[in-house]
Amino acid sequence: MMCLRSMNANHVFSARPTSNNQGTELMKLKASLTVALLVASLSTVGCKSKTEDVGGGGGNAVDPASTPAGDSSTGGAAPVFSLAWSEYPSWSVFGVAHEMDLVNAEEGEMGTIEKQYNVDIVLKEAGYDSCLNMFTSGNCDAVCMTNMDALIVSPGRDGVAVLPTSTSNGADACIVAGVESVDDLKNVETFGLKGTVSEYGFVRCLETLGKDPAEFTFTNQDPAAAAVAMTQKQETHKSIMVWNPFVLQTLNDRPDAKVLFDSSSIPGEIVDMVVVGRDVLEKDGGDKFVQAVIATFYQMNEELAKPETGDEVLVELGKKFSNLGLDDMKKVVEQTKFYADAEAGLALLTGEEFKTTMTTVEKFCVDQKLVEDPQYGFGEETGKKLLFSPAHLQTFKESK
Amino acid sequence: MLRKPISRRARFGLGTASVVLMLLAYTWLSQHRQSTVRREQQEVAVMKVAELKAIENRTERQQEELDKWVTLSKSPDAVDRTVPTWSVLYHEGWVRATSEQGSFKRKEVWLINDFAATAKRLVVGLIVGILCSVVIGLLMGCFDTIDAFMLPPFTLLAKIPTTAVLPIFFVLVQINFKMYIAMILAGMIPTLAQAISASVRKDVPEELIYKAYTLGASRFELIYEVIFKQVLPRLLDAARLQIGPALVLLVAAEWMVAGEGIGYRLRLFYQRTDMTVVFVYVILLGVIGLVVDYALIWLRRWVCPWFGE
């Protein structure tokens, strides 16, 4: 093919090529039409998309100019913060809070609690792993995770655990079929996700039973896949260590399976919580954001406790992540015990027991090479990567 | 004899037969699984009934349990959701996906929400991607300098499966609407721009270029009036073939980080091993894919009737 550049220097005719052929005209028209259509649709959708952007990465207190127009309710000044959550009993409350309009998940729109605290909470739902990743990469301001993962990701971003939401009290269980005793378990593989609370629970439960975890085999597998294999009675899967809703679902779908041991023997060790980036707390409105998140969580707990709405909220909680009906969901919240009010949360964060727990968790994480030399502290301690701080709960309690 | 033509009727009949066969196979499989699940439940129920009946002084709770198992041993009610029967597929899949969900102020219809969210990401991504690819591809096809500059990175990038690059996107780009667009662009431009550039070099006869110059076309006119239009049908075809990969990427990304969209819903239902809504979504994706594909083929024929079938 000839290079165009060499030919364009001087052309003899300046007149446009005329076309007498109607067919060509039509074709030209169609072609331009197609291009025009593309451009038009692009510009319309492009404009629309501007308001869709979720901006709260790293929790930039949004400058007024970039706040979408038309949110008269906020007065245009509410700082934007984001909370990443995944479907789990005590975290799905945030999703239901959105449905109840206590908070509005979208940026630029405010629910009742958001208005009360004048802070715009953006709820970002994602898979659990993705939430952790969003937190360390600064893609969100706060995240729902377990105490163990808070420790594991602490080198990635300084965090403050402000609100314990629940503790696993049977929600992580070792389910077996055809295995009669813990000693029998030595002969089979147990499937579960390595480096997570599943493996932690497995090791810890065995320790409390006086066994040596090293004698047991724990094989890495996604809990959903393990649960399906168990339900389908695959020969390889005689034992799985999974969390809810897989525990209840597997037990429902395979009635001859039973729980060998579960996290109810280590209560208060696997704690689900909300962790906020330390950088966020230093921002304008960061404190209000934390207070609003705490308020939302306890407001939802009140809704759960009300006889008239409780059941409905409970079913709604489970709807997205499970096939579990009301009865099963009642079991779920027994097995995932909520810290239903500020007193319960404070009792955990200020208690001595939790400090011991964290030492155990730290030992496990370091042994398993999940983290090296984690720096964490409690209360007023400074210079730690991860801080378990009751201060915000205290503030909330006093404001009530 | 190889490639011996068959009659239209035979073709139609065979086509229908294969579809019917597929549906029958599914029906059989789902019924089989359903009955297996029920039978197993019944067996367990019978066992439990025997166990409980053996207890002489039953507590109230045990009595309740016994009643439950007695009922189950007579009429098991287990539902298989891994290969759901047609009626389960309709009631738990279609109806659930298309009716309003939620008991509170804010309700949503999953199907509409999810497909709208994904479609918006896909359409914007495709349009931006196609426009960028057209510009880059035309320039690459027309100017050797640009081609020499762009080709090496494009050849390399086009070889990297874009799903493998997802983690980089999640970490480096904020997870929002723009990220999905950027992702589709990254997956699309290297391949599509190369295809367009190749088409410019192959499908535009040199005589046409000479003729246009002789008739006084400027460089822009040459590119737009002659070259662009000449490669338009190829472009439309190439763009059509990009929809599949873009959707694969989008669903994968949504699976991991989205709070709405097709991938998000598939993940939720995968986690609960409930294939009812999954099957509905998958079938719908297939149907929509077919429709869009034919629409674009039709568009190409309408825009470039001279190109042929």
Commentary on this structure:
By secondary structure, chain A is an alpha/beta fold. Chain A has helices at residues 22-52, 92-99, 112-117, 128-136, 147-153, 197-208, 223-231, 246-253, 278-281, 286-305, 310-319, 326-335, 342-350, 352-367, 391-399, and strands spanning 80-85, 120-125, 142-146, 159-168, 172-176, 189-192, 217-220, 239-243, 258-262, 271-277, 336-338, 376-378, 386-388. In chain A, strands 1, 2, 3, 4, 10, 11, 12 and 13 form an eight-stranded mixed sheet that branches. Chain A has a five-stranded mixed sheet with strand order 7-6-8-5-9, sandwiched between helices. In chain A, helix 6 (197-208) links the parallel strand 6 and strand 7 (217-220). In chain A, helix 7 packs parallel to helix 8 (246-253), helix 10 crosses helix 15 and helix 13 (342-350) packs antiparallel against helix 15 (391-399). The N and C termini of chain A lie far apart (79 Å). Chain B has eleven helices and two strands. At the A-B interface, helix 1, helix 2, strand 2, helix 4 and helix 7 of A face helix 1, helix 4, helix 6, helix 7 and helix 8 of B.
Give the fraction of residues assigned to helices of chain B: over 70%
**Helix/strand-derived class of chain B?**
mainly alpha
Question: How far apart lie the N and C ends of chain A?
Answer: 79 Å
Task: List the helices and strands of chain A in order.
Answer: HEHHEHEHEEEHEHEHEEHHHHEHHEEH
Radius of gyration of chain A (Å)? 27 Å
Let me know the largest β-sheet of chain A. Answer: 8 strands, mixed
The total strand number of chain A stands at 13
Q: What best-fitting shape of chain B do the alpha-carbon axes yield?
A: elongated
Estimate the strand proportion of chain B: under 5%
For the CA atoms, what is the radius of gyration of chain B?
28 Å
Number of extended strands of chain B: 2
Helicity level of chain A = 40-55%
Order of helices and strands of chain B: HHHEEHHHHHHHH
Question: Which blocks of ≥5 consecutive residues of chain A have pLDDT under 50?
Answer: 5-20, 44-75
